[in-house]
Amino acid sequence: MPSGDNRNRQFPNKLNTTAIVKLFILHFLSEKSCYGNEIIDKIEKSLSYSWRPSPGMIYPLLRDMEDDMLIEGWWDEPDKKTKRHYKITDIGIKQYEKLKLIYKPLLDESLKIIDATLKTIYKN
Known about the structure:
This protein is mainly alpha-helical. It is built from 4 helices and 3 strands; from the N terminus they run αβααββα. The mean pLDDT is 91.
């Protein structure tokens, strides 16, 4: 886009927090089953402890993703309902692979914009 012909008016990020967190959830559940707090910890660690999603964000997303059949959940102890584990479904695996392809160029472009901004303004 050196000429600016294909400029996008959405700056600098084309992905919102929810989209990124959903991608992380599908990623971690594609590796192994997890419970909600475990997913929160994994996301925080992946982001070098610079940001931690709240339970108020994660649990509604997990319920929505379960309703959409992207993941499947079950209680460790159904009578107590204290810890719910989740695993990715076949539909979820397909969605994860699709989202990875869609989001990669968007993340690359956002990174390029942020990097150029840092270099210009802060001489990083």
